[in-house]
Amino acid sequence: MSRPHFDPSRYDAQLAEKKTRLAALLAPFAAPEPEVFDSPREHYRLRAEFRLWREGEERHYAMFEPGDKSRPILLDDFPVASEHINRLMPQLKAGWQASQALGFKLFQVEFLTTLAGDALITLAYHRPLDEAWQVAAEQLAAELGVSIVGRSRGQRLVIGRDYVEEELTVAGRRFRYRQPEGAFTQPNGAVCEKMLNWAFEALGPREDDLLELYCGNGNFTLPLATRVRRVLATEISKTSVSAALANLADNGVDNVALVRLSSEELTQALNEVRPFRRLAGIDLKGYDFGSVFVDPPRAGMDPDTCELTRRFSRILYISCNPETLAANIAQLGDTHRISRCALFDQFPYTHHMEAGVLLERR
């Protein structure tokens, strides 16, 4: 992650440019004007990763411009990161400078925080971690009030928990989430909460069932499950599946069946191309799917998965890459129309943006 060019005075103009770009991408599909959900102007990133750069006997937090690893940008703070990360940065630096056990061959630091006030720090090393490291890390974790994960080749030592706990409010209800170290989570918590509320409203109350692809740790699953009769959710990452199951249990959501299948595999199962033992006990034909929710990776949906979504009356699509979103909509345009669309500014001061569309059968 390179350092964003942080200039709050330019924020409104940059957001307007993104809206114009999204509207142009969706114009061929007669999309309505995008709803726009802005970001806090600073302290919006809940996670941050830094390399360490040595000058003399001291190591500094460092970032680099893309493609240039020779000229570091040395940091004492990071205004786009959460206030919690900014408080921890100097405290952690003092900790590794004061302890040979913590500082020796430390080369990378990752922070993961939440709106709920939780924090986890990952320390990566070019050496094995020993008992001295464990003792020093336990003391530092207690002093900072955080969990710590130490990583080196073939090692992963956890002080405290290997996840953080988040709380997000959707339609007046608070949902609790476990967000594991090393797994994907939305970096901008305030905008994530806006996305969840938009998706909740766009789906609306239904009397039928929902299919969810790429469910991750259940970020959208929890609130959307309260809008439908039942949910069948899929995810391929074991870590995310484990977190999603814990999140469902923690929130008392009991109308979701979660299976560890890729979208391609689920397409094969629904098309009766091949059976899967991971679907044992799940009656696919017993579902009355009216809607499908997808939040795919940057590459978007593959053509077969895109064809699968065509079967549904409503396609609720969250995208981190509007270009691949537009390509998927082009494949679906003869059967579905865009009834709502939205821009979520997850990544201020960059060209990246998150988008949402509701596609309904013509």
Describe the structure.
With 362 residues, the protein is α/β, with parallel strands linked by helices. It folds into two domains: 8-41 and 188-361, Vaccinia Virus protein VP39 (Rossmann fold); 47-164, OB fold (Dihydrolipoamide Acetyltransferase, E2P) (Beta Barrel). Helices cover 30% and strands 29% of the residues. The strands form three sheets. An eight-stranded mixed β-sheet has the order 1-16-17-15-14-11-12-13, sandwiched between helices. Strands 4-3-2-5-6-7-8 form a seven-stranded mixed β-sheet, with helices on one face. Strand 7 and strand 8 form a beta hairpin. The longest helix has 16 residues, at 11-26. The mean pLDDT is 95.
Chain-wise SSE layout:
Elements: H1 11-26, E1 35-37, E2 47-55, E3 58-63, E4 73-75, H2 83-98, H3 100-103, E5 106-113, E6 119-125, H4 131-144, E7 147-152, E8 155-159, E9 163-170, E10 173-180, H5 189-203, E11 209-213, H6 221-225, E12 231-234, H7 238-250, E13 256-259, H8 263-270, E14 289-294, H9 303-309, E15 314-319, H10 322-332, E16 336-344, E17 354-361
Parallel strand pairs: 1-16, 6-7, 11-12, 11-14, 12-13, 14-15
Antiparallel strand pairs: 2-3, 2-5, 3-4, 5-6, 7-8, 9-10, 15-17, 16-17
